[in-house]
Amino acid sequence: MTGNLDSAAWPVIITPGQQPAALEDWVSANRDGLERQLTECKAILFRGFRSRNGFESIANSFFDRRLNYTYRSTPRTDLGQNLYTATEYPKQLSIPQHCENAYQRDWPMKLLFHCVEPASKGGRTPLADMTKVTAMIPAEIKEEFARKKVGYVRNYRAGVDLPWEEVFGTSNKAEVEKFCVENGIEYHWTEGGLKTIQVCQAFASHPLTGETIWFNQAHLFHLSALDPASQKMMLSFFGEGGLPRNSYFGDGSAIGSDVLDQIRSAYERNKVSFEWQKDDVLLIDNMLVSHGRDPFEGSRRVLVCMAEPYSEVQRRGFAGATNSGRS
After folding, report:
1. Coiled-coil segments, which residues (predicted)?
2. Which helix (H) or strand (E) element contains residue 33?
3. In a 3-state reduction of DSSP, which class is residue 20?
4. 8 A C-beta contact, residue 46 and residue 37
5. Exposed, middle or buried, 229 (CB in 10 Å: 0-12/13-18/19+)?
6. What is the CB neighbour count within 10 angstroms for residue 282?
7. What is the pLDDT of residues 253-281, one digit of tens each?
């Protein structure tokens, strides 16, 4: 591979060397080696490259097919051509470590981030090696999750969290129902909106390495992801069954907050951070590396695209669509 490689850093850093180069040209010349490098290193940061025509051009050089952000869980701006802003939560909030779309049965294998404008302070995108995270989660917790899987319950209503129209990308109820049936999501139209329930994997096997990875978002969807005051407020407003989002074991039994705290600790203890620089491009394997966001000051603009679909439904053969109805 051409360019300068700092393999001692993580993520691995690749720079163009003495002569400025367009990242699109570099990727075209090194694509086969890049695939091998990503599987080995899991995350690669490209720094000091220029672009011929912005993020869309860069994304085209990396991927033959970019994915739509379907069945959404966070607010983003759709930039067109399956390019998006990073999650647009308020700047004072942290976004915990997670693998993208791990609350679904299919997901992107790769993520590409482009730092258009770094924050004046903070705003890092911490990463964690999922091999290390998986190893650090206590065996008895992993055994129970492997046996029971994870259930995600979402209640969509106006003015709280994301509306169902944004989550499903349509205002057509028939299209929502079709998506739910095809993806094994139980759905119920309610007086206030929509309720969905889906059971998904707790672990997934990487298609190239064969490694079994902790791959879910139980710790993000669970009520305990909120601060105590927010938990109390949500319960008083909606009751447990009406919370905007929550997670359970796949059999409907509760996941203890103490269990989820141990999972969060495994992520936190393996976090690695770097300072964004303008025009940095970060490529990660979405199964082998989790990501998050630190709070920040000033403006910050990071773009993302998702690529290379992977389906746990096809691999493991989950049960077909759950019977659904209106209530």
Report:
1. none
2. helix 23-41
3. coil
4. no
5. exposed
6. 23
7. 999 999 999 999 999 999 999 999 999 99
